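HMP-PP phosphatase
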Amino acid sequence: MAKKFIITDLDGTLLDTPGKLSKKYIEQLNKWIDQGLAFTIATGRDLKKTMKAINGLTLKYPVILTNGAILAELATETYLKITHIDDNISKHLVQKGQEFQLFPIVFAAFDPKKQQMHFNKGVWGPQKEITFLSSDKVYPLLELQCVSIQYHAKKEQLDPLLKWVKEKYGNQVNIIYIEDVAYSTSGIAGEWFWLEINSHEAGKDKMLKHLLSVINVKIEDVIAIGDNHNDTDMLKIASQGIAVANAVDSVKKIADLIIPSNHEGGVFQYIEEHLDEFI
């Protein structure tokens, strides 16, 4: 019987404290990984933010970043696969966003000549004043390979742009539209959402398939764990899709199993209860 391979989302799923994984769980995971646990991560975070969140965790497998737009090796900070949006589409998206008075808050681009990733970011957070990226931060990167364009605003502001993107480029890009839970739980007025636009080749499910081909693991041996809409396709293709108790209803509906919430260490409880299957 083949050993199971576990892949989990970070925020809202694995992370048990705001923005990071607690020391006790890092130590526990490292112990299990040393004993043979096949484990990795699929997150919406970029490489630097991922490393900050799980500082001290020693992963032996590549990680999926930027909601499946990137595959990387954390230990060496090496990018193994990078997807990008068609040049004409990315330029049109930015121009159309400005017509709706929307400006990116994250813009990721890859320079193929220098083999260098650029993540230009504005400022956001429940306790911070939002600062979007100015044109001089975005337009130079449009000359490179656009990996991800991300907007952060209230739902009523984002919906018109979302509608246009779906109608114009729905089958040529990967669209992620999720509520910012940090804002809603902080009592800030309005429905705040993230609109993320990546290549049509991106997605946690698509990058997972690529990862499995690289490490020679079969999809029937994969257990995927998540909490939000951007995890849905990954959970669907895995042999077992698991949702934490704090997951959104649509994820719980398609999950094969629901485990305790991230704040209760649900992922760790699940692994410990089934350790014989994983090690």
